[in-house]
Amino acid sequence: MAPRNIPATPAAASISTTASLINDALPSPSPAADIATKKFIQSRFNALLSSLPPSPIHPGSPAGRSLLLLPIPPAGTTMALLKAARVADVPTLDLVAPGLVVETADAAASIAAAAAAAAGQQQQRRFSVIGHRGKGMNALASADRRLQEVRENTVRSFNDAARFPVDFVEFDVQVTKDGCPIIFHDDFIYTEEDGKISRKRVTDLQLEDFLHYGPQNEQGKIGKPLLRKMKDGRMLNWNVQSEDALCTLQEAFEKVNPRLGFNVELKFDDYIEYQDKELTRILQAILKVIFEYAKDRPILFSSFQPDAAQLMRKLQSKYPVYFLTNGGTEIYTDVRRNSLEEAIKLCLGSGLEGIVSEARGIFRHPAAIPKIKESNLSLLTYGTLNNVPEAVYMQHLMGVNGVIVDLVPEITEAVSELIALPEPGPEVENLSNNQAAKGAATPNFSQCEISFLLRLIPELVQ
C-alpha cells in the first residue's frame, strides 16, 4: 500500500499544524501495514519536525508539548506511531506501545498514566455523584444564578438533589452550645439589626437562637436577616430564589428522602486547636442522633480535622470515615493536611476508609492515585472543577470513585451520558474498590476529545 503524499510544510508551521498534516496524510488503519510504510512515515515526520524553527512557546504549554519519536515499534502499532505527533493526537490512552513516545509535559503524561492504569483494572467501579450542601452551595457573588437557586444545607435543598441520580448529599454538621447537632457551613453567622452588623460563632449559640436566623417555617414568623461574609471581606445579603429554614441533623433524617445517603462533614474551625475532651463531646452528640435516626440510610463521615477523623473511627466502626484534604493546594501548620501523601499516611495509620481531595490536588499530583488505590482506599473529590463535565469525566478515567458537585442537574446528566453506571446496591455507602457495585462503565467521549482533555486539564489546575 503506497502512502499518500504529504504536502510540504512551511518552516514557520507549528507543531500542531505538522500533526494535522501528518494525520491528513495517513493511510487507513491496517494490521498488514508493512515495515516500508512505517519507515516512510517516520522519515517524513522527522523531516517535517527538522524543518521547524525552535519554538518560542514554553514547553509546558499545550502548544509546546512536543513528542520525541523513538525506534520503530513492532508491527501492529503503526496507527499509534502515526497519531503520536502530539499527546493530543494519541488515539487511545492504553493502546500506545510502551516506549513509543516521550511526553515533555509531566502533568499531562501523569494524568494519562493514571487513566491508563485505572482502565486496566479488572473490577468495574460505580462512579458516584454527591450533591454539595444539597443541590449545590450558595455562591452569592457569582453571576451564575444556578448557585443561588435554593438555600444550601436545608431540607429543601437535600430533597431537590434527591430528584436527580445522586447517591449522597454532603453537608456540614456543627454542635450548638446546648449540644444539638445542626447543619450549617460557616463558622460565624451574621445578621443586621438597627443598621448594625453583628456576628456570632455558631457553636456559641443555643439551638433556639440558631433557628431564629433566616427564613422561618412557622407561618407569620419572621427570622433575623441572614448575611454572608465573602472571602474578600464584602458582606452580602444571603438571599436565594427558593428559601427554606435552617435545620438540625435530626430533621434531615426525618424529612429527607430515605433513599439518599448522607455524607456528614464534621465541621471545625481551622483556627482553633481542639482538645480530645471537646472533640469527644461534639462527636458523641452527633453519633447519638445518627444511631437513633439513621436506620438503613447510607452514611459516611468526613473531616478536614485530622484528630476528629481519627477519633470518629475510634468511637464507632459502623460507618466509613474519610479524611478531607486540599491535596496540597493550600498549606497549613498541621502537616497532615498539606499533601495527598500525608493523607494516605493518616488513613493507613488510623484505619480510615478513604480520602476526599480538592480536585486540583488530584490533577496536580495524579501519581498519588495509584498509591491511594494500592492502599485500598476510596477516593472522592470536591471543588469548582467538579462543575466541569470534562474534568469529572477525566477523574472517572483516572480511577476516582466519585465527585462532590454544585451543579447537580447538569453534572448528573453529563455523567449519565458519558458513563454507563451500574445500578446502586446495598453496598453503595462504601465507595471503595472492594465494595464497588458490579457493572459496566463505558466511556462515550471520542478519543480525540479525551486527548484534548489531557492538554486542557493541566492548564485548568494552575
Describe this structure in words.
The protein is an alpha/beta fold and 462 residues long. The protein is built from 15 helices and 16 strands. Strands 3-4-11-12-13-14-15-16 form an 8-stranded parallel β-barrel, surrounded by 6 helices. A two-stranded antiparallel ribbon has the order 1-2. Strands 6-7 form a two-stranded antiparallel sheet. A hairpin with a 2-residue loop joins strand 6 (188-193) and strand 7. The longest helix is centred in the middle third of the chain and has 18 residues, at 276-293. It is globular, with a radius of gyration of 26 Å. The two termini are 46 Å apart.
Rg: 26 Å
Alpha-beta content class: alpha/beta
**What's the average pLDDT?**
77
Q: What is the number of beta strands?
A: 16
Q: Helical residue percent?
A: 25-40%
Characterize the largest beta sheet: strand count, sense, and whether it forms a barrel. Answer: 8 strands, parallel, barrel
Beta strand % = 15-25%
Residue windows where pLDDT falls under 50 for at least 5 positions: 1-105, 432-443
Order of neighbouring strands in the sheet with most strands: 3-4-11-12-13-14-15-16
From the N-terminal CA to the C-terminal CA, the straight-line distance is 46 Å
Instruction: Using the alpha-carbon principal axes, give the shape.
Output: globular
> Count of DSSP helices?
15
List keywords for this structure.
462 residues, alpha/beta, two-stranded antiparallel ribbon, 15 helices, 33% helix, disordered N terminus, EC 3.1.4.46, PLC-like_Pdiesterase_TIM-brl, glycerophosphodiester phosphodiesterase activity, GP_PDE_dom
